[in-house]
């Protein structure tokens, strides 16, 4: 039978550290008026740290009167004491340290190559010091970036800042962020900000770096050249095609002199000419602009806060994209499930509330509606006060939306087995032929009278 007395062994080693019996190491920690002489035992330090094994090797060691001499001016005496106590007995208490001191302790542990302590301190910072990490995101990110061993903290900081980039963008020290770190952030698909906000944050950083006025009217040719040079490594990282037309006109186009002229031409063409496709590769919408992905070939996820707000009648205010109370699950896509009423009902019946969208052939128009009930049953009219129709006259521009809630609750939704999604005076006659008579069951929102659909999708609306 074996018995283990780890606690007793730990206590004995702690006493050895405190009494300094038989020490053969002298470490001078700190600098100037805050230098302290600390004693230790080389055998114990070498077993627990690769750094000390190297420091006490014949090639590096400095000895005096038979004792190893080390000078650590960049480690404060109290932090070295904490680390040595951990080396001797495996105990450490971080609760009494403030966030900045915990980070300094982590840097000291990294210099002395105490891997288990590095992991523990990172875990503690992540679990208990998130408020501190918010206080100086720029400085902390740069500090962590410089140390390869801080992988856990690096991933945490990146994830946190990508989820809440305003912590960084609104920081007074953001303008001091190193270009390499800014470039790394702008490459991220999960940077959770509107693209126009990212663009304007980049401009703020650039103008501060150059100590230059942000008014294009006051720039000289030399100023323009300097700004273009500073921005050159970042321009391709901005996803200009996902910036709304009005924001592009008022907040991007005014800076056209510092952007590549072919890019400006392509963006103008994209926003002005109907159904034009980008000439350059269109980068995808950043994934975490919303907390979910929308499985759609017709629209981007930016439509979802609008749909959710209409469902809950939040007009004119809308849900923040980070707080959407619904999930939208694809039930039916005409191109892959069959472009007919039978396929529509097979996929969409008995699934509760749905929202559907349809692209009108030969136009930029997108129409759709919300059915809070169900599409099942060959029963004619269904009654509700919560359904609505909508029309985007330009699919690329959500500000062109027109919305109409049901006027006649008794004729809100029409359910027939031989029809697709029909609501009041909007009728899906067969697979792709539709008709609309506005102004009675629903308000007139400028949907054409008779039209053909390129395709449509139906999403189940699920309360979170």
Automatic annotation (TrEMBL):
PANTHER family (UniProt xref): BTB DOMAIN-CONTAINING PROTEIN-RELATED (PTHR24410:SF23), HL07962P-RELATED (PTHR24410)
Protein name, as recorded: BTB domain-containing protein
Annotated signal sequence range: none
The organism's place on the tree of life at top rank: Eukaryota
One Pfam family in the UniProt entry: BTB
Domain TLDc residues, every copy: 297-462
Matches recorded under InterPro entries: BACK, BTB-POZ/Galectin-3-binding, BTB/POZ_dom, SKP1/BTB/POZ_sf, TLDc_dom
UniProt-listed SUPFAM superfamilies: POZ domain
Domain BTB: 23-96
Classification via PROSITE patterns: BTB, TLDC
